[in-house]
Design brief:
This protein is α/β, with parallel strands linked by helices. It has 14 helices and 18 strands. Helix 2 crosses helix 9 and helix 12 packs across helix 14. The chain is globular, with a radius of gyration of 22 Å.
């Protein structure tokens, strides 16, 4: 992997070289994407679809080429099934409103997992409050993996949708979404996949998965902020009402009523982020130029190496240690008296937890950027019985030297805090 493609990695933080390990929050951008954004604004910036002049036609062409590229990238059947949004959160909110308006009634149930990001909890809670429906969390086993037996038992005639993260943004665990989809489809229940932490790190093919919806963000996969995707099977998208009203999403507007545009434009009110979609297309090309085999092998090696190094640190507990992970590791430090290897419940009972904020602050002073806190997954953090965790997350530009720098900084922080 060519780190020199990412200009920000040459920055220093507090006088030290930047070690960026917060990719689950947002990724850095390669020079090719930065150049693409400049090109768009400097050479063909113009509102799309509605103009007959050259700049508008060129901008429209780039935007729709990006839609086709996204469809190909995730294996969608048609570009018409690709809805551009502001990101995963926007995609899931749009789905909760549109699907809920069409299909959810009082007493119905929506299933999510107990490890979900707030973006895959709160929109469904809001829907359930509006409709008098029930949101039910799929429980976790003791090893923090999804309890599939419980999931099977939870599916019933009232279940209207299952929405689940393919990869946990806290634990890095890869959920068995293929099995989730198969079991739900046996009862004709649609499934939405939160791909925020999977699409940037592994090949995701919606046709092979047979998922009904997929949501993901550009900014976590080396693309600009403010652009995201909601994929939906055509039959669902055609049946659902639009999320927002305004320009572009209409066919005819009269005082007597409005008819809506065809897919995908029915769900894209107003001026879209056509520069962002161009940047997303460029990021996709960048990933494809490296090849998924190369990217996944590199990140899997890095994740395994980091977990191995972390588990050897006295007083450090890795959550879901030993479980296959996709580029995310969460841990906490405990005072030496409590030692390493304690169960989560034992650690929870101990008063010697070193607050993750303190650990993150001392790592930052040494140039190492990690994320600390509840990671917008408070129900999961409550389940772990801690106030938060320290989270390390990788991108394709990270290497073993970054892990070594993390461990050296962590060793110094541990000596200061324990």
């Amino acid at each position: 992997m060519n780190r020199t493609d990412f200009p920000i990695l040459t920055e220093t933080v507090h006088g030290r070289p930047l070690v960026y390990l917060d990719n689950a929050a947002t990724s850095q951008k390669p020079q090719a994407v930065l150049d693409a954004m400049t090109e768009a604004y400097a050479h063909w910036n113009s509102n799309i679809h509605r103009g007959v002049h050259h700049l508008s036609q060129l901008a429209t062409q780039h935007h729709e080429e990006a839609r086709r590229a996204v469809a190909d990238f995730i294996g969608a059947g048609s570009p018409d099934e690709i809805i551009f949004t502001r990101g995963t959160t926007d995609s899931l909110n749009a789905l909760a409103f549109c699907f809920g308006e069409a299909y959810v009634r009082e007493g119905d149930e929506i299933l999510v997992s107990a490890m979900e990001h707030h973006s895959n909890i709160v929109p469904w809670q809001m829907l359930c409050e509006r409709k008098g429906a029930v949101l039910r969390p799929i429980p976790l086993r003791a090893d923090l993996t999804l309890d599939m037996e419980a999931f099977r038992d939870m599916l019933n005639e009232r279940t209207r949708l299952v929405s689940i993260a393919q990869v946990s943004n806290v634990l890095g665990i890869v959920n068995p979404v293929e099995e989730v989809i198969r079991l739900a489809h046996e009862r004709d229940i649609p499934v939405c996949i939160d791909g925020a932490q999977s699409v940037p790190h592994m090949p995701v093919n919606v046709s092979r998965l047979d998922c009904d919806f997929l949501a993901f963000s550009g900014h976590k996969m080396y693309a600009p902020t403010g652009i995201g995707v909601l994929y939906g099977k055509r039959r669902w998208l055609e049946a659902m009402p639009p999320y927002q009203g305004g320009g572009e999403m209409v066919d005819h507007v009269r005082w007597s009523g409005t008819t809506y545009n065809v897919l995908p434009y029915k769900f894209e009110a107003g001026t879209p982020d056509f520069v962002g979609s161009y940047g997303l297309h460029c990021a996709i090309r960048y990933i494809q130029s490296l090849g998924w085999d190369t990217v996944t092998a590199h990140e899997h090696d890095l994740t395994a190496y980091c977990e191995q190094r972390l588990t050897a640190v006295p007083g450090l507990h890795v959550y879901a240690a030993g479980q296959p992970k996709e580029g995310v590791i969460s841990f906490n430090l405990f005072a030496p008296a409590w030692g390493a290897g304690l169960s989560s419940r034992s650690q929870t009972a101990a008063a010697r937890l070193i607050h993750p904020f303190d650990v993150g602050t001392l790592l930052d002073r040494q140039g190492v950027a990690v994320r600390t806190g509840h990671h917008c997954a408070q129900p999961l953090i409550d389940h772990l019985g801690v106030p938060g965790t320290v989270r390390v997350s990788f991108g394709l530009y990270n290497d073993r030297a970054d892990v070594d720098a993390l461990l050296a900084a962590l060793d110094r922080a541990r000596l200061m805090l324990t």
